[in-house]
Every structure is written in C-alpha cells, then in structure tokens.
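S.,

As promised, the zinc ion run. Input:
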Amino acid sequence: MAACLGLLIVALLVAAPCPAQDETSVAPLPVFEFHSGFWLNLHHTLYRQARLQRSSSPASNVAAVGPGMGNLTPAEQRLWSSALAFYSRTYADKDLTVSLEMILIKNQLGDFETCDDLAGLKKRSCDAGLPDKLTEMLDSVAPVYRAHLWPEHDRANRRWIAAVAPLVRRNGLDLSHRLAEIYQTPWPKERIRVDVTAYASSTGAYTTLDPLRVTISATDARNQGAEALEVLFHEASHGIADTVEDAIFRECRQRDKPIPRDLWHALLFYTTGEIIRPLALEPASSVPASGSSGYVPYAVREGLYKRGWEDYLRILTQYWQPYLDGRVDFSDAIAHMVSAL
Ligand SMILES: [Zn+2]
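Predicted complex:
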C-alpha cells in the first residue's frame, strides 16, 4: 500500500518545469527511479539544522537558520523552533546511515511522499504509522517548510535529476551489467529508488539495504556533473557487493590475518571510478572529462586514498585491476590482495 502511494517516477519529475533536458515524454529511465519527496526533505532539513544549531561554531549557527527562513512570522518561527528542539532532543545524535530507527523513518517518509499530512486526517491511507510525537511535529511544521524552503529544495532536486538523467539513460544499463559481472551478483530486477534531498548525511549520499535505497544530496558539491553518475553507481554497489566483503573475510580467516577495515569499501570506490573513467574518453561521450588528464574518480578527487588508504590503493592497482581487465579471476584477485597486506 505504502509503495503505491509513494511512487513518483522520474518521468513525472523531469516532465515538471525544469531546465530543458529533452527528457520529457520519454520512457522511464533504466536502473534508477528518482524521487524528490516533500516529507523526507523536511525530515533531513530538520535533522541537519538541529545538528548545526548545536554546534558551537557561529558560522554553522548562521547556516542553521538557512536561506529562505529569515522571514518567518512569529507563529511560524515558534513552530519551526519547537520542531528543531524536538529533533535536537530525539534524533540529532542518531546516525542517518546506521540507526535502524532513522532508516525506518526515512523509508516510511519516502513511501508517503505524496500525502498532505502524515496523521491520515485527509485520507486514512495516509496514516504513516510513525511515532505520535514525530507525526505531530512534522505535520505542524509542514506548512512553514512548504512556504519557505521546499520550493527551493524541490527545484534543486529536479534540476539535479534532469542533469543526471541523460547520463543514466545512456550509460546506466551497461554500467549495471558490468558491476553485476564484477561482483558476481545479479543486479536488482526492480529499479533502485533514489531519494534526492537537499541534505543527505555528512558524506553527501548514503545507502540503506532491505530494501536497497539510495539517498543523495542535490546540492552537495561532490555530487555534480559526471561525478553524479559515479556517486549513484558507488551507492548502488553497496547493495550488490557482499561477495567482496565475504571473500576478504574468508581469505583473512584462512591466513589468520586481521580483517582490513574498509578494504571492501575502498574496492567499491576504486571499481566504480575505473568503470566510469573510460566513458569520459569515448568520442562524443556524455560523461565530460574533468581537466586535461581525463576523468578523476571520486576517491582520488576527495583524497580518500591519502587518508589512511594508501596501502589499499597500491594493492587495488596491483591485484584488483588485473581482475577488472579480465586477466585473473575474482577469488585469485582477492587472495592476492589479502596476502599482499
Ligand atoms: Zn560507500
């Protein structure tokens, strides 16, 4: 039931008044289904502002007020402040990406994105079944968000979707097949839901499993241009790369070695970067190369390998790359990596 309420497919989104992308009146995108949902955006906005407000830095306190929130009426200000105080008490210490409570709330708010209220006052099927206090807070503050911030957030989300849609349309299926082959795991049959939000955790994007859903920030500088495609496929890889974690675990056990923290995650970054990179070199590519040296993968651009992953980059280049090139098989590549640590 929730799913049928919640569906707002990208065809609708890109058909909305957005920068022209020639994406209107065409078939739904492959691989991903993008959503710009009101409630999830409101929830993340309150969560972020509650966290910022508690920070001691004056700069972040200014940011916590947020553009568009400077002209609230006193009544609106009271509602917003009390919702922020509630989020600060209840959720600000919880991690969006690992707290089961936060994950369940996120999924539920996504599923009920088309509802006018979450208590089911106007439509019984819109009773989202969330904790009473949360429902009350979100419903009370919704008109404030809708009037002052949501139009700007929704526009940014739709603009981001319209920009990435042609890349997904052109490269999405090939990339999904390639990643499924690399991780030796079938790609999900259903399109993967991607919730596009103004804010999406400190990393700019995150993925939750069972069901596999990606949340990505439309305004985060790390998620723009061709890089958006890499971030999307990195995130989706979280849903199909258990084979890597399992194989690393097995090899370590056999060799009585400690399990290298985050090697599997470095491998995901490396792999997505390497399969996106050649697209930027194709003639008439829709993936623009950044600078004269071609496409720069996310982990290089954001300096991840320089922050404790230097050894990982070395063994990935030496032992995982040959697997990507088809010169060794999966188990041998993992075994070589683990023995080289
Ligand atoms: Zn990741």
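Strands lie at 32-35, 192-197, 205-208, 213-217. The chain is about 55% helix and 5% strand.

- D.
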